[in-house]
Amino acid sequence: MGKKMILLLIFGVLAAYYIYTPLPDNIEEPWRLMWAWFAELLGISHFMDILQFFMSLREVPVRSDENVTVMQTTFNNVPVRVYVPKRKSEILRRGLFYIHGGGWCLGDAAFLNYDFLSRRTADRLDAIVISTNYRLAPKYHFPSQFEDVYNALRWFLHQDVLEKYGIDPERIGVSGDSAGGNLAAAVAQQLIEDPDVKIKLKIQSLIYPALQTLDMNLPSYREYPHFPVLPKSLMVRFWSEYFTTDRSLEKAMLFNQHIPVESSHLFKYVNWSSLLPEKFRKGHVYNKKSLLTVRQRFLRQAME
Ligand SMILES: *[C@@H]1O[C@H](CO)[C@@H](O)[C@H](O)[C@H]1NC(C)=O
Ligand SMILES: *[C@@H]1O[C@H](CO)[C@@H](O)[C@H](O)[C@H]1NC(C)=O
Questions:
Q1: 304 lines ligand 1 (CB under 6 A)
Q2: Who is most buried in 6, 125, 219, 302, counting CB within 10 A?
């Protein structure tokens, strides 16, 4: 009973915190986060499953409108939605392969916002849009997400598939947002080295992509650690769920202590002191040495 009371109290405090946090309109995420966190605390369900449940309430069925024909099919056993403009075209069209976001744990091509985006893109760009799904964490970990997306993309890039949809093989792009941006960048790079795929991408367009997990203490993480919709703790949870069910990775990432000393040469790739424009760096200084010193202190404490 005592424990439940404390949980309720915490829930109340969090509720108050979220109510008084100023947010743009239409953002309901904090409530969902709170419910998910609470349900997990009570052992009712996995955090991500609750969030995914809330998101699934906003999925829309496959339906065409006056400008775009929408179809559901599979590419290499991966479910995809295809958006084809209805107006006649004299020439071969552009093709866009889109990968939804959601921290590798959430989301679906059927989600209202993604359906809307794909529909609009198809209509405005007069392009065929393929909006792919992929298996999600926590049930599936890396590299399942990557593999699904890559398999679907490889299927799409077959000459006969492109012909079927009237797509110009010279004008194909890949795009994605957030975790989808991460996957888009990953498949684009893999494709360059794939001798089996003859038709290559012309462009990659990454929308607020998640591109590195070496340093979890970038200036934006320092400036806005608790800012909804995506507080640092949630981003760290997404990354760690993508890799493993072992929650100790999440803890290490929160303290930025997840990169083994042997791999510290990789830090040079995230030196944001040279990569970020001045205005985003603010007063923060990238310091590889301090990353490692803190790490050693952390390891010592962990061993004691
Ligand atoms: C279809 O296209 C027309 C002309 O651009 C536009 O006015 C209309 O709103 C579009 N319909 C939908 C459902 O987007
Ligand atoms: C990061 O880049 C800056 C600017 O180029 C450089 O001065 C600094 O030494 C680099 N830091 C590390 C740890 O490599």
A1: no
A2: 219
Residue 197: inside a domain: yes
Residue 26 lies in domain: 20-57
Residues 202, 84 within the same domain: yes
For ligand 1, the distance from its centroid to the CA atom of residue 85, given in whole angstroms, is 11
Measured in degrees and rounded to the nearest 5, phi and psi for residue 78 equal: -100, 125
213 within a domain of the structure (yes/no): no
Q: Has residue 125 been placed in a domain?
A: yes
Closest CA to 176 of 153, 199, 142, 144: 153
- Ligand 2 centre to CA of 256 (Å) is 19
Indicate if ligand 2 lies below 6 Å from the C-beta of 274: yes
Which DSSP symbol is given to 104?
A: T
Q: 260 CA to middle of ligand 2, Å? A: 20
Task: Say how many domains are in the chain.
Answer: 3
36 and 110 in a common domain: no
Residue to probe by mutation, ligand 2, list 265, 270, 274, most atoms within 8 Å of CB: 274
Query: What is the C-alpha R_g of the chain?
Result: 22
- Reported as a single tens digit per residue, the pLDDT across 267-292 is 989 999 899 999 999 888 888 776 76
Q: Of 174, 207, 240, which marks where a domain is finished?
A: 207
pTM above 0.85, yes or no: yes
Give the residue, by CA position, lying nearest to ligand 2 atom 13. Answer: 288
Cβ pair 99, 145 in contact under 8 A: no
At which residue do the structure tokens 């995914």 appear? 52
